[in-house]
Amino acid sequence: MDTLAAQTTPPPLTTARLPRIWKFWGTTLWGLFIFGAMFAGQLAVVAWFVLRQEGDLDLASTIRAVSGGLTISLSVIMGLPAVAAACWIAIRPTRMPFADYLALRWTSWKNVGLGAISLVVLVGSWDLLSRALGREITPGFMGDVLKSAQNEGALWLLVIAFCVAAPISEELFARGFLFRGWSESFLRPAGAILLSSIAWTSLHLQYDWFFFCEVFSIGLLFGYLRYRTGSTWLTIVLHGLNNLAATLQTIWLTS
Known about the structure:
Layout: H1 2-8, H2 24-51, H3 59-67, H4 69-91, H5 98-101, H6 109-132, H7 140-151, H8 155-183, H9 188-201, H10 209-229, H11 232-254
Helix pairs in contact: 2-3, 2-4, 2-8, 4-7, 4-8, 6-10, 6-11, 7-8, 7-11, 8-9, 8-11, 9-10, 10-11
């Protein structure tokens, strides 16, 4: 009987078989891979629109194709599956479930309400400062893209891109993957919030310095909420609501 028990007892888990989390350098290198996948997914759409143009390619026609509302909408949407696939590849060696690693868990409605109020106060403060400085409330980039999308009959697609695809892909990248690994490295949560906010802000180079600073402050808020609630779904929802409000505001101001 002792021999039988010894044969049927499962071997203890070794350290090599336990789930792990990428630390600073692993998260940084895999983060570059995920960013590259996002860029490649978006660039593929842009390249398709440029190459399908009739006639000779010149700088003016290329710029029109790249900056069109339909092109931007589809490129942002294509960035989502690219990011999701790259995150899956990066997480697979850790032996952790995809949703657990990226903290894709829901939180309480109280946290949603507090997060929404905090976001409204923050963005409202930036709007007041923008008015005080005599600046436009919305960036010119948003107005130009919306007008182009309206002319091309792709406004609905732009709303999906800005309010659904972009929040999910960017939050999976910044508050999901980057924050998870960096927060458990020597950076600790505070350093991870700061560095992931910088990485996220770098995705918005189309804006000038003022809106660049606003995006960075929103990133700090999202990072803090991710840390306090342990939920990336919360930041995805708040990110989507923020982009929806900005889109509706731009439509109203440019109508």
